[in-house]
Design goal:
Elements lengths: L1 H21 L33 E5 L9 H16 L2 E5 L7 H11 L2 E6 L5 H10 L4 E4 L10 E6 L2 H14 L4 E6 L4 H17 L4 E6 L6 H13 L4 E4 L5 H10 L2 E2 L18 E3 L5 H8 L7 E4 L6 E3 L8 H15 L10 E2 L5 E3 L7 H4 L9 E2 L4
Parallel strand pairs: 1-2, 1-3, 3-4, 4-5, 5-11, 6-7, 6-8, 7-15, 8-9
Antiparallel strand pairs: 10-12, 13-14
Helix pairs in contact: 3-4, 5-6, 5-10, 7-8
Length: 383
Amino acid sequence: MKKRLLSLFLAAVLLLALAACNGDTNKTPDNSSDQPGNSGSQDTQGSAKPGAGAKKMGIILGGTKDDYGFNLNFVQLAEQAEAELGIEVVLKENVPMTSDCEGVMEELIAQGCTILFPSQFGYMEYSKNVADRHPEVAFFSFPITDYVGDNFSVIHGEVQDVWYLNGVLAAECSTTDKIGFIGSLPIPDVIVAIDAFALGAQSVKPDIKVTAVFTGSWSDVGLQTTSVNQLIDSGCDIIAPFQDSIKTIMEICRSRGVRCFGCNADAYELAPDTWLSACITDWSGYLPYLKQTIDGNYETVNISGGMELNLITQATYGDSVPTETIKKLDAVREQLINKEIAVFEGPIYAQDGSVMFEEGYRPTIEEINVIDSLVQGVDGSLN
């Protein structure tokens, strides 16, 4: 009997010891993602979200960073991101818009870039291929694309409001009432800019003439030179370009005594007296999304907006712009932001007199993004 009791006692002790050793398996896991400051840093499978803890960001450029236009715009993003987010930015210039760009993106990822910002439309298909191979990397697209999802986001600044403001500024400053616009390709983005610019100018001087020419290129210096000289020879005293690089255009305008807008980047320093302003990206609206990503809280976004979302803005005014004109522009800007006026509110007519938008109708951004006609009052052809 004593032996049986001793055996039962020893068995009970052994069971207690085993329970003590394995007791942690029944505790609630210490999930660090539930702690303050870590909310959302992991997905439902427990893996880190795209770009979490990023130390480096890669930006892919189609041209050179000193173009004073589209590519300099992204250099300015890099400077702000490094200063305000403490992240290192690696810039790759003159990257071809072919499948070769995938190798450049892979190289950036191998260097430790876990946020990538491909800048051009031509990179989108290849960017999505790389994004699919690297779910740990957060991709942000500047151009609109239907590739949005998972680790691929779009943040797009709508240009029509700022180009309208530039048109107002052009009309206020022109003495010949003839303005030249040098477009690149006759695609909706460029056409929208020309139309908005013309409508802004017409709001000041209904009979002002805007002559649009297309070079068929984003930065062909020879075609830019020919176009700007022809427009000036025809009497234009204001030139507006929708080109990736505007340095040549600015230099010719300065030498010939006419004033000029920029495009995509603030190039005031090139020629303060020649410079009027430009439609540029407002990176302050983008940085919060980059910070959210670095903090481990990446969420796929598909955003298109304007000045009201701090995604687009007007650049520095040139030294020749009168104070009274700046006050007028400030008032129009507030009207646009507050939706008191809308750039394409009807009636809007095409060159041939057909109705683009009926009286009182305000088109959606989806309708604006597919505009393929120049408005009445613009001289020039899309062919």
